[in-house]
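in:
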């Protein structure tokens, strides 16, 4: 199986400047390639492909010594492939009738990653093995950069990426042939219901809390955003204010991901079969309908609900749960979420009135009372096991 590993880089001041220059040159290459495609089609009705632009790289590098010539040829090809993938996705959306979203030029804040497609081609992981207490990654044009490797890397390193997040730099390794670490069987199965009050509620009545990381720093974030609003565009103080806001959001993102890992690991250790709802978080968190002149009803409430759902991080949690279950040899089943919270787990009666409040469930047909999330988790488990039996019988 394939797996990614992410580690914090510890560059010197000179290496950080070189990494910034590398990122900027790759951004300019991306924008120039995009302009090339746009101009050729607009002026001559000619479609430029990746192969055409990759062939031009040799001339671009020879014409810019000390600039584009400093960096790995393979990493520049990866940047051109990134643009090609953006165009491929654009045409797929056009064919599917969705909002196309034509590829855009990248500003400094929208281009934060450079990729080397092969270990040993312009980059080298663990480049100084004679230092047993430290790990280094060698990047062409930058040098040997120290890595804070907090856990061992397994498998064969295939690609290496460097990513900037705020003032921090990270190296991301994509590894093939990572051995699966199957956990001993427990013989247990569980349905899980995702919520806002509790991130996860199991069919057995267990609850995993929702720390609400964004809400915890809401006051600090509001102060930082107000301070940002007062700064003049283009000023040095505004750049510092932007960095403060970005740092707060980055901290929340790291906390949310860390909690998702711990919650998913707890479930994977306890259950052989885990059933969850196939939630479409992007659809669930769309803004309430309306216009500026006629904003509609419940806009404020919907905005608050969207914020709570995104703060809980359902999408992040399900992504982490999926790969942890695969690595541990557990079975993960996704079921249709329709009516799982309105169906009585005792008699099967479906009615909107069964759900009294966020936490209370009482069936209007048989009188069964339970915690609403536990009742939903039981329905999810039953649906998932039925799908599993049907698939095994087919």
């Amino acid at each position: 199986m394939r797996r990614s590993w992410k580690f914090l880089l510890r560059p010197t001041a000179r290496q950080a400047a070189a990494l910034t220059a590398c990122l900027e040159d790759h951004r300019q290459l991306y924008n120039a390639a995009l302009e090339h495609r746009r101009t050729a089609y607009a002026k001559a009705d000619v479609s430029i492909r990746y192969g055409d632009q990759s062939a031009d790289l040799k001339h671009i590098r020879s014409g810019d010594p000390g600039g584009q010539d400093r960096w790995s040829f393979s990493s520049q090809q990866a940047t051109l492939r990134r643009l090609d993938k953006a165009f491929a996705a654009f045409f797929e959306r056009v064919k599917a009738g969705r909002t196309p979203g034509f590829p855009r030029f990248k500003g400094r804040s929208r281009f934060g990653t450079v990729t080397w497609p092969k270990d040993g081609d312009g980059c080298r992981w663990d480049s100084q093995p004679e230092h047993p207490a430290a790990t280094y990654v060698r990047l062409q044009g930058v040098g040997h950069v120290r890595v804070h490797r907090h856990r061992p890397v397994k498998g064969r390193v295939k690609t290496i990426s460097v990513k900037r997040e705020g003032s921090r730099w990270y190296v991301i390794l994509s590894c093939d042939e990572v051995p699966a670490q199957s956990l001993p069987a427990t013989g247990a199965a569980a349905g899980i219901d995702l919520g806002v009050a509790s991130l996860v509620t199991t069919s057995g009545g267990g609850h995993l809390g929702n720390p609400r990381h964004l809400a915890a720093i809401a006051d600090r974030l509001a102060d930082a955003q107000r301070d940002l609003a007062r700064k003049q565009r283009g000023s040095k103080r505004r750049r510092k204010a932007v960095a403060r806001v970005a740092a707060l959001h980055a901290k929340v993102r790291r906390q949310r991901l860390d909690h998702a890992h711990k919650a998913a690991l707890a479930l994977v250790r306890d259950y052989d079969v885990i059933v969850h709802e196939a939630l479409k978080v992007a659809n669930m968190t769309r803004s309430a309908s309306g216009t500026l002149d006629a904003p509609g009803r419940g806009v404020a409430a919907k905005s608050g609900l969207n914020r709570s759902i995104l703060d809980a991080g359902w999408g992040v949690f399900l992504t982490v749960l999926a790969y942890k279950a695969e690595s541990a040899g557990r079975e993960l089943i996704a079921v249709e979420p329709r009516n799982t919270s309105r169906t009585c787990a005792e008699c099967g009666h479906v009615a909107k009135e069964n759900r009294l409040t966020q936490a209370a469930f009482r069936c209007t047909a048989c009188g069964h009372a339970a915690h609403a999330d536990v009742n939903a988790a039981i329905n999810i488990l039953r649906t998932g096991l039925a799908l599993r039996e049907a698939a095994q019988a087919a």
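note: The first helix runs from residue 13 to 44.
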